[in-house]
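To close the chapter, one final illustration. This time we ask the reader to focus less on the individual chains and more on the assembly as a whole: which components sit near each other, and how the overall shape emerges from the parts.
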Amino acid sequence: MIGGLFIYNHKGEVLISRVYRDDIGRNAVDAFRVNVIHARQQVRSPVTNIARTSFFHVKRSNIWLAAVTKQNVNAAMVFEFLYKMCDVMTAYFGKISEENIKNNFVLIYELLDEILDFGYPQNSETGALKTFITQQGIKGQFQTKEEQSQITSQVTGQIGWRREGIKYRRNELFLDVLESVNLLMSPQGQVLSAHVSGRVVMKSYLSGMPECKFGMNDKIVIDKQGKGGATDDAAKSDLGGGSGKQSIAIDDCTFHQCVRLSKFDSERSISFIPPDGEYELMRYRTTKDIILPFRVIPLVREVGRTKLEVKVVIKSNFKPSLLAQKIEVRIPTPLNTSGVQVICMKGKAKYKASENAIVWKIKRMAGMKESQISAEIELLPTNDKKKWARPPISMNFEVPFAPSGLKVRYLKVFESKLNYSDHDVIKWVRYIGRSGIYETRC
Amino acid sequence: MTDSKYFTTTKKGEIFELKAELNSDKKEKKKEAVKKVIASMTVGKDVSALFPDVVNCMQTDNLELKKLVYLYLMNYAKSQPDMAIMAVNTFVKDCEDPNPLIRALAVRTMGCIRVDKITEYLCEPLRKCLKDEDPYVRKTAAVCVAKLHDINAQLVEDQGFLDTLKDLISDSNPMVVANAVAALSEIAESHPNSNLLDLNPQTINKLLTALNECTEWGQIFILDCLANYTPRDDRESQSICERVTPRLSHANSAVVLSAVKVLMKFMEMLPKDLDYYGTLLKKLAPPLVTLLSAEPELQYVALRNINLIVQRRPEIMKHEMKVFFVKYNDPIYVKLEKLDIMIRLASQANIAQVLAELKEYATEVDVDFVRKAVRAIGRCAIKVEQSAERCVSTLLDLIQTKVNYVVQEAIVVIKDIFRKYPNKYESVIATLCENLDSLDEPEARAAMIWIVGEYAERIDNADELLESFLEGFHDESTQVQLQLLTAIVKLFLKKPTETQELVQQVLSLATQDSDNPDLRDRGYIYWRLLSTDPVAAKEVVLAEKPLISEETDLIEPTLLEELICHIGTLASVYHKPPSAFVEGSRGVQHKRLPCSAGSGESVDSPETSSTAGVSDAPPAVIPSQGDLLGDLLNLDLTPTTTGPPPPAVSTGMQLGAMDLLGGGLDSLMGDESEPPPVPLRTDTPQSPQIPNQSPSPTDYSTSELGGDLGGNPAIGAGFGAAPAAMPASFGAPGSGGLDDLFDLGSGVGMPMGAYSPPKSVWLQAMKAKGLEISGTFARRAGVIQMEMTLTNKAMSVMTDFAIQFNRNSFGLSPAGPLQVLTPLSPNQSIEVALPLNTSGPVMKMDPLNNLQVAVKNNIDVFYFSCQYPISMLFVEDGKMERQIFLATWKDIPNENESQFQIKDCHLSSDAVSNKLQGSNIFTIAKRTVDGQDMLYLSVKLTNGIWVLAELRIQAGNPNYTISLKCRAPEVSQCVFQSYEAVLKN
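The assembled structure is written out below.
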């Protein structure tokens, strides 16, 4: 298991050092600094073996987190734990920075003592941790016996992510369907690969221990119901649907630990008792019938050895009533660019020498529109034999729909012990589609 | 809250000041001081001098302060064991605290203090905490047992904590179960044979129930533990799989990977024709793909694992090629891994896409990545024949870029393409030659030289090109030197007139001016070949080369199996067994995949083989491996003459090689004006007796361009190395004929159906690096034969088979070499019949008919033992004269008589007689007394021992009685078994 955990700043100074196993000595701290942080070359692997000691590291801004072990540990678990550690720290004190870590080092030690025992990860749900690890540090003494046992049963219990006795005057929940659409397109407009990775983020402000059931237009569920003869259900969604498909094929999905996986496996229904506040209910991935919000048509021409002509057309491909925002097109330029002249129909475009790219920004763009940029790039003559690698043109944007076509059908809330019903809960749903890696080769 | 100030105190006298503050009356000041101490400790300052002062702060109600003091204690207790005792009282008291959080904290911390005296005091509180009413305390105590075990294993056993821990597996709280499982698994690892976890269907059921309820981390512990279990049958295996599959949808990648591990392992037991098997395969792909949208570090772990999974079960990911396409801003470690998997998945169906991608990658920035991409294009060409042409043209385009490392890499792979598709793409040689000057890496130079040598006849200035390399011969790396030597010899054989000088030059450079034994030996071999028999030299050096395999970098199958059992762990990331990077006893156990179901045979085989006397270690009678290997190598060619005639196809070559030993040597000495000053001169025709000199064929396996030395194994044989290697390497052209010959032999050999037992597995593939041998013995037309089926279950080609027997009771020994003519490619089986004689050395074995065998191939030497039916030793002239029979029967003392029963045999006495005769058991006389038939039988063994028998058959009674009389009574038992076997089959 994990033998020790170190946090370093960018200079390689140790900010936190916690050793769990006897086989990890102080020299491990230095070994990582010398061989990884101060290494001359770029890091070639997130797992490094130095003198039979394995180091796992992740980096958050300029902070290094390293887990150390001498055993054959579960590597996936170690990385998952490091990410979790980052989440927990962020939940407690915000951004992970040298300043914040130094300011909270006592707290971090306390957390490390709690969530990692002899190198075995323990309950690391912030909701539960916050009930007994507090920055005040004095809560322990004032707890009643009931409170104490409530804490311990929550930390170890089946529903470790939610405490009992939560009360809200207004029962409310927010669902955000956040998708990132990824595309790799050939210069000829052929889709080389495209997928949507989506997340359903839920903010729940519900009293008691509510039992929730979430439904979406999952093809498997809809088809099953269709077979069952519920024709009017299909008709209903036809009416409401408006744009796009009735159901979508989900390639794969993963769920927050509150979701009963065996139930999903057998009935494909998503039922759970949610944590309080914000959390990620599920992640999913689709590859079929994706709505690609933008199409990029590049045209790059090399005029002699010292000039490039670039023309890029973007076309929006969604309902005209919807507006895309924060559109940014990034056209890479060769390293030996000496000057650039740009003309664009819409928005602003600038050549950024430090980034070796022309950045074209458009604030808003409605569906079924088209816009164009053309640029002349002057090049310095070089005798570098290697050709310019022509990195792909990338795009960023945000659209108010889900490119996968996912629709939330319902989120039902049941709390039998308290007197509020599903109808009393105020529910909000929002769809945001963002560009992931959205690239067109040129 | 600005605790960062604690990090900045650097002034002198700090320790003294801290001491004062720690002893202050004010609580706040104390706490501040402890924080400063911890901060100093973190950055590596030695603050152990403050030990007593810090420990004094321990008695406090402030939980935060308490935790800080504990942290300090854990760090320094070991260096101050005597003072650490001061803390014991507080710990013991805290373990009784009404607040469960404090009880748990105390027991958790105590377990981290590695001081003997403290551990003694820990036992009682720990025992209480293990049975605490609060689950939080119990789950902490469970881990504490593992801590204590790490400090003092004996203590844990003596105190009975292991049993308490086992009980916790049935705890009502899932987290307690998970921690108990984790602790037990760890303890079990250091006691490989303790059966601590004692996994049985009941506990498995408990674990599976807890799996649904515990935290994500607990699920990982449980799944990792489940993976160590071996289900009893395919039904149990399926039911576990069914309950594990829902985990594939977990958000935590480690849970997913551990579930994949369990499924991959248990799948081995499911019959392939089961519907569920197919369903399961389909379910595995999506979660694996989803792992690729995780953070890059996890992607890396996932990709390393997918690489293993794809090798073991290619069908899972075969439609998922696209997800492995490299993204521009993937970290380099992700890019390289994706590329690897892309090549593994490349097939005719997706090759166009793959090639287009690879071409993109070849223009990227990262040198390693570009090189790998170029190499990948070459591998595609070799793997998918239809794409070869496109690949070659892509490579040519890349060569045109003139980017140095791209060109070199391209040349290396083009060489392989030439090997794979001879006489197809040689038109590009001219382009390659243009780039000769820019090559500065040994591998690329060697590849280019190989190409020049191989196609010397098509390159007009081949001699000039090679000569230019020769100038700096001694500065080249060995790889290039060896290649240059071979290439020039090839050139000489192709264009002898113009290149005599060149070849002399290189031979003398290699033999006289080099200290490298490989190079020198190869030089001498060529020299001698060329000077004795140029025709033979041509046939050897320019021999047809064996095919190169399509897949490269495959992990050796047994290692792969082990790594599959370690999915998700570091071993799967490093692609190395845990023993390679873990110190001490932990993780040294080798894990194995369970045997597949359905084929009950292989599941049972461990037992059958163990009854046959096979043990993992070579049996004690067999000399140590080294000696035996030496023996195997010393097997000279003489036995061949007593066996069947040498294989016709290889005679030409063989004679060439033999000639070398005979008269050829004289001419070498005579003709050469400057004979090499070599030990070879001492090689008179007895050279087979110089084992040290004989290069075993494996020595050459290091040569990068496999087989470029042409028939080097043959040369080896000529010098007295394993003779079997020779037919193996020459067999390729005409193996068919020889197989026929054997088929014929086996057809003729059974005039009356002599009994031969069915084939059984003698050597399991798992124990022999993928070589499986099953076989039987038979006597056909008076010749004893060992009939074997060799099956290659490994990924690489096997060649150079040889066989040797240990001394045995009847002096059985091979009458000729093992005739495996063609290299045995993966998944291929070959039938071999090895004629045996009984003139070998004799040693009594137990059981009498036990035979210990060593089989060698290009991979290793393997040992097994088998038992032969003694009936195959019954000779044809075993019919005794009646008079002599009578006299002998009387003559043999009665104590030498043994009686046996043959049960459930429903043959008439005549049928018995006939049947026995087929196996050379002769009926001398028959008598009928009171409805009872008495048969008098005789048998003669190869070593001249006679065994006489009286067989009583009562009409209507299926049980026969047999009395055996023999001067050597110890054979009776075996002979009886043969009677029984013959009669019942």
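Confidence is low (pLDDT under 50) at residues 598-752 of chain B. Chain B touches chain A through 116 residues (CB under 8 Å). With these observations in hand, you are ready for the problems at the end of the chapter.
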